């Protein structure tokens, strides 16, 4: 395996949490720990993105975001990675294609907060993503209703399962809201109070 790429054995089920992590915060840690437990995932990999293709704002340098993420999220089954920088991919659909080719026999589950489902239909090849991996949508304060009414939720409503815990064993297309105790931490809020980056 390439340097910096985690090792995974055939048969493993690995959750992928992509994000800007600008900066990583307790909300990320909370959903990661809860998803590991509730969804019986073998590992979760954080994919710290070089840059969200839909965000105009330039994030803090990747090295700084990785260092903060690694300092905050300490768990033997959670790997903090810069896989997308290594692969040269920017969109999630491309990243998933590459990971499936690199890790035959490994099942990936895409994880994201409910806020991301609201605008998921603007992502590159979003239908392909939903057809190729199980997707767990993690509860986030303020986004539940909009997520349930979103274009993607309506388009794939027949593929929704009520049981997020079972996603790891299901064949896509399948997705679920994974109801967790919610945590209201947000990177935007941390940046606004000067807790990160050039201003903080
Ligand atoms: N408090 C939270 N509860 C549930 N999901 C979250 C929470 N914070 C972040 N996430 C999810 O984690 C992933 C990465 O989030 P991201 O790095 O964009 O953090 P953020 O706080 O949403 O940042 P920003 O405020 O800059 O958009 C996304 O799927 C996001 O929906
Ligand atoms: O593939 C896309 O078109 C796409 C559009 C928007 C966001 N994403 C991914 O969604 C993840 C969450 O991004 P963010 O900035 O909300 O943390 C991250 O992995 C992004 O690369 C992907």
Provide keyphrases for this structure.
200 residues; alpha/beta; Rossmann fold; six-stranded parallel beta sheet; 9 helices; globular; binds adenosine-5'-triphosphate; binds nicotinate mononucleotide; Rossmann-like_a/b/a_fold; pyridine nucleotide biosynthesis; ATP-binding
Specify the number of helices. 9
Ligand inventory: adenosine-5'-triphosphate, nicotinate mononucleotide
Provide the gyration radius in Å. 16 Å
Q: Please bin the fraction of helical residues.
A: 25-40%
Structural class: alpha/beta
Number of strands: 6
* Alpha carbon gap, first and last residue: 37 Å
**CATH class bucket:** Alpha Beta
Poorly predicted ranges: none
- As for the number of domains, it is 1
Shape field: globular
CATH architecture verdict: 3-Layer(aba) Sandwich
CATH structural fold name: Rossmann fold
Query: Element order, helices and strands?
Result: EHEHEHHEHHEHHEH
Largest sheet: 6 strands, parallel
Pathway: Cofactor biosynthesis; NAD(+) biosynthesis; deamido-NAD(+) from nicotinate D-ribonucleotide: step 1/1
Catalytic activity: nicotinate beta-D-ribonucleotide + ATP + H(+) = deamido-NAD(+) + diphosphate
Function: Catalyzes the reversible adenylation of nicotinate mononucleotide (NaMN) to nicotinic acid adenine dinucleotide (NaAD).
EC number: 2.7.7.18
């Amino acid at each position: 395996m390439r340097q910096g790429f985690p090792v995974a054995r055939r048969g493993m089920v690995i959750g992928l949490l992509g994000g800007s992590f600008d900066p990583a915060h307790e909300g990320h840690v909370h959903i990661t720990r809860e998803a590991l437990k509730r969804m019986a995932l073998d590992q979760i990999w954080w994919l710290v993105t070089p840059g969200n293709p839909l965000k105009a704002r330039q994030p803090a340098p990747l090295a700084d975001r990785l260092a903060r993420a690694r300092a905050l999220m300490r768990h033997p089954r959670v790997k903090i990675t810069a896989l997308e920088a290594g692969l040269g991919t920017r969109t999630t659909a491309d990243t998933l294609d590459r990971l499936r080719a690199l890790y035959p026999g490994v099942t990936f589950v895409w994880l994201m907060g409910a806020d991301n489902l609201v605008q998921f239909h603007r992502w590159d090849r979003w239908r392909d993503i939903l057809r190729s991996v199980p997707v767990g949508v993690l509860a986030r304060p303020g986004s539940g209703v909009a997520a349930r009414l979103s274009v993607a939720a309506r388009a794939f409503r027949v593929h929704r399962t009520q049981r997020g815990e079972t996603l790891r064993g299901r064949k896509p297309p399948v997705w679920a809201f994974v109801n967790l105790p919610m945590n209201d931490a947000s990177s935007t809020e941390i940046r606004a109070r000067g807790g990160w980056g050039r201003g903080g």
